[in-house]
Design goal:
This protein is α+β, with helices and mostly antiparallel strands and 468 residues long. It folds into three domains: 2-95; 100-205; 211-463, Alpha-Beta Complex (Aminoglycoside 3'-phosphotransferase, Chain: A, domain 2). It has helices spanning 2-7, 9-15, 99-111, 166-176, 213-226, 240-261, 268-282, 293-304, 344-347, 354-374, 392-415, 424-445, 451-463, and strands spanning 29-41, 46-56, 63-72, 83-87, 90-94, 114-115, 118-122, 134-137, 143-148, 152-157, 159-160, 185-193, 196-205, 211-212, 263-266, 310-313, 324-327, 330-333, 351-352. A seven-stranded antiparallel β-sheet has the order 6-7-12-13-10-9-8. A hairpin with a 2-residue loop joins strand 6 and strand 7 (118-122). Helix 10 runs antiparallel to helix 11. The chain is globular.
Length: 468
Amino acid sequence: MTEPATALLDQLQDWLPRQRWFAAKGRVIAQLSVAQSVQLRTEEPYADLLVLAVAYRDGGPVEHYQLLLGRRETLPAQLKHVSIGTAEGLACYDGVWDSTLSGELLSALATGATYDWLRFVPEPGVEIPTGLPGRVLNVEQSNTSIVYGDEVVLKLFRRLAAGVNPDLELHRALRGMGSGEVAGLRAAIEGTLGGEPAAFGMLQEFAANSADGWSMALISIRDLFAEADLRADEVGGDFAAESFRLGKTVAVMHSELAGALGTGTMDAEELSRGMLDRLANALPVVPDLAELAGSLRAAFEGVAELAEPVRTQRVHGDLHLGQALRTPRGWLLLDFEGEPARPLSERRRPDAMLKDVAGMLRSFDYAAYHQLSEWGEWAYPSDDKDAEPTSQLVWRAEEWTSRNREAFCDGYADSADSDPRDSQVLLHALELDKAVYESVYETRNRPSWLPVPLRSLRRLLVTGGTGR
C-alpha cells in the first residue's frame, strides 16, 4: 500500500484538516507522511489501514491519525461525500462509510484476526455478531463510531497515541466489576504505534432507543423558555428527576472504579499547582481571562490550604451531558478518554472524584446558557460586547441550572458515602479549572461559544458555585 498512499499525500494534506475529528484546526501542516500501513482487503473494494504522521509548521510534537482508506475503480454516489482523491487510477475515500469495508472490521473482530502490527481482540466469553450492515453515527468529533444492526457499535480512535488508552482500560476494569453503568465491552482493535502498544478502536454493545443527556437537557430548557409563567418544576419537560438519576449513576461508577483500580491521595498543594499552571498556560491563549486572573489564582491557591490530602482514584475525566445516554433502563456513561487536549499520560493519572462532579455541573450551566445564545439573548450591542443579557429568559436559565445542579448532587450523595457540596472549596476550584479549560477549547475550536465559559467564570467567582 505504500505506493498508492504516497501518491495520495498531497490530496490527503488538503482533505485531513477539513475533517471534524482533526484536532489541530487552524494549524498549518508542514509535512504529512504515512507512518504505518497494513492491507486489510485485497479485492475490490480494497482496504488499507493507514497511520498518518502530521508535523506542523509551528513546531510541537508530531500527531498521528487513523484512516481506513478505501479504493474502488468507480466511487458510488453514496460515497462521494467522503472522497479523498485518486491514486493509481483508483478512487480513494474514507472507508468507514463503506458498509463492505466496515463489515470486514466486524468480521475481523469476531475471528480475532491479526494483520502484521494490528490485532483484533475479542473479550473473553463474548459473542460478536457478523453479517450486519454498518452505518456511521454522524455525531462525534474526535472519533468515528460505526453501528452494526443496532446490536454493537465500533468506535475508531481517529487521533492515536502510544500507550494505554484510558477509554479501553477503564471499560475493561468496569466490565470486570460487572458494571451496569457503561455499555458492555465486546472487543478491541489493538496494535503498535512506533513500536509501542496502542489502541485503535473498541467494540461495545449498542444502546438502542436511547437519547443523549445534552439533547434531553436542551429540550427541557426549550420547554421552559416557551412557557410564559411556569417555573422549572412546573414544566412538563422538567429534567431534575433525570439529573438525580444521573448523579446516582456517576456515584456508582466511581465506586466501581475505586473497587477495580484502587484509591490514593494527592497533596492539596500539588492539586493547586496544577490548576495554577493550567491558568498560566491559558492566559496567552484567551486574553479575556486576564481580568479574572487574580480571582482565579486566589481560588486555586485556596485549594493548597485544605487541611487534608485529597482522595484520588481513576475517574471519567471529561464528564458532561453529551457523555451520558438515557436508555429505557437508566443512564449509561460513555467515552472515558479524558479531556482530549491533555496528554495521554496525564489523562491516565488518578484524580479527585469531584473532577467528574464539577464537569457535570459545568455541563448543566453550558446547556442553559448555550440555549440562551441560540434564542438570540446574546446578540451583543455593537458598543458593549461584555453586556449581560437581561431578559426574563436569563432568570429562567439560572433557575433551570440551579435546580438541576442541586438534583445531580442530591443523587450523587444518595449513592455515595459523601455529599460533593460538603467539599465546597475544592468543588468550586474544580469548576473554575474546568471553565478555564473550556475557554481555551472554545477559543481554538468554536470561538462563537467562548462567551459561555467566560460568563460562567464571572458568575462562579461571584456566587461560589453550588453550595449550601
